[in-house]
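Lab meeting, action items carried over

1. Structure of the two-component assembly. Owner: GW. Status: complete.
Input record:
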Amino acid sequence: MEISKNLKYFFILPAVLSVLSLTAIGLWGLKPGIDLSGGTLMQVTYQGVPPTAAQVQGVLSPISVGEARVQPTGTQGYSIRTRSLSDTEHQEVGQALATLGNVHEDEFASVGPTIGSELLHKGLIALGLVIVCMILFIAFAFRAVSKPVASWKYGVVAIITLAHDVLIPTGLFAFLGYYNGAEVDSLFIVGLLTILGISINDTIVVFDRIRENLAHNEAAHRHEDFSVVVGRSIMQTLARSINTSLTVIIVLAALWLSGPVATKDFALTLIVGMIAGTYSSIFLATPLLVAWERWQKKA
Amino acid sequence: MFALRYTSILILIAAAALGFFIYKTTQPQYQAAQGRFAFKLGLDLSGGTELVYNADVTKVPAANVNDSLTALQTVIERRVNAFGVSEPQVQLEQGGALGNGVHRLIIDLPGVTDVNQAIKSIGETPTLEFKLVKQGFEASTTNADGTANLNAFADTGLTGEYLSSASLQFGNGSGALSSAPVVEVNFNTAGARMFADITKKNVGKQLGIFLDGQLISAPTIQQEIDGGTAIISGNFTADTAKALATNLNLGALPVPITLESTDSIGPTLGAQALAAGINAGLIGLIILSIFMILWYRVPGIVAVVSLFIYSIMMLSLFKLIPVVLTSAGLAGFILSIGLAVDANILIAERVKEELSDGKPPEEAIREGFKRAWSAIRDSNIAHIIAAVILFWLGTSIIKGFALVFGLGVIVSLFSAITISRTFLLALGIKGTGKISHFLLRSGLRK
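Predicted assembly:
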């Protein structure tokens, strides 16, 4: 692969997608789920002919439960989101819903606001911790490689790639939140953290090949431009990168299309992160290494 | 070669035995009877209610916090067990981003979907407090509506914490109280000393007895009471006095709890989620197998076999450890299936390269495994780091995911390296002819 000539073009796709994601996040923001913000979520199913969403909204408005968001789920059911409800308020809502027909409560979740903010906090700490551990680990794993690029730089490049891989699904969720009310919940955070792991995985496989090729050259006393080594490494790992992503995406797509409702968004997050992780390990991580090496030479 | 084939057959027999074990212990009747090796399903898959209570320990001396929380846990466990739920769980957890926040009590009630009933079954901890009437407030201890005027009372520090037992008694006093039911409270040594001290210093004053913040009675202190026994009289019948004594015995705790969050999932929704999860896993596995066999041929078949053995090993571990399976855990398992293939792909690609260098098949396979190992090792370590952090910092949903995922990574390291390698070498593909090359290569070209 002709990395040296086309260096600039490699960065176009990641840059455009990153800017789009940032715009989406800035424009629409992220909608927190009840487990992050606190609140109540009820999932009910009506027997026979279900009432309309407006009717449900209608019987709820006289009760002082604040703003209620009613969304149809399936053909027979509704999910109702309100602020955190007390025991008695919960019963009142149940009675109000029963006036519209034979109703069954499938799920009732109520989360206090403190637990929510705590979860968010923990998630962010975990995110930070994973990133720090990954830089350290990569710097360690590639400690033997110091020429022409120092091993800690592999770590930094891996983290830039990570940031990109996490940014893309987050941007998608900002869009989905605006488009169909998708919410960011604790599973989404798990998804992001998993993407971190997968992204590192992809990047490591390519870096590992660079490491091996560099060692090879050294043993053979052959001198080769860094960009040539990197280009060859990408080509050698290309089939693997694509096939691995494909296999993981196959199982995730199954989870997304036919898996439990609870993990549908989670699967989608991972699919998008997976795709971003694959192309970024090829088109972002390694070209960045080459760019850094050139910049070093010039300086 | 003989040793390799022998080992391969042993692995296959062991896998078949494990498969039979899973089959046997997943029969509906075994699962229904909650046998020792039945799959343990989380509340989101089996239906049930989870209640999270905040425990307020601000009034407990720091040294006693752990003891009183454990005591609280015991009491709640007793109440939940009395409710007749199968396998209820009561856990303590400390909140806050770094585990230094409020103390929480997490109660899992499988099969209970009526939240209100569940909350009632746990009830609120009765708190018993003794408060002195402040000087000047003697005439105004109650408000116009009959509730206690809290401004009129001063804390004495004497609470139910110092209780050793409570029992139903029939009064031996004079007049109308002669045979009325009362609750006799016995203090422990420290409590008896405090009680003696309070009564000694405040003769002639009223001592209010509060239960759950409500004033039950406010007798006037006649003299110092040093026996460590107090009588609570009120408008009790024999039954209400007995109930109070029982509650005080069970809940003689200074830790008030408040409901922080509830999560209740109906059994149909849980069963749907479980069926969907299994379905997704199977579909994923099948499509994956077809792809691997078509693209990677012999190494693909080996990868698929070792993938099935991997799945059997994971399912057995879920039963043996046991791991409580949730939607998030299932997602972690399905994801780990995808990642388990990664090692096989790395190896297959590497073997192909070695063949292109003109090496004979057996050497190419050995070399391919050796070369692929460093990438497999490093990427798996990265996954394990992520799983450990998630497990360490996560809440229950995230922990469920991290446990299954981390377990999957470790097991797949073994299955990809040991099992796939043994099988591939045991097949003994020899020669450098077209056929053996076709079998070991991949893709559409060449």
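2. GW to write a short summary for the group page. Key points so far: Residues 36 and 121 of chain A are 9 Å apart (CA to CA). Strands of chain A lie at 39-46, 69-73, 77-82, 103-111.
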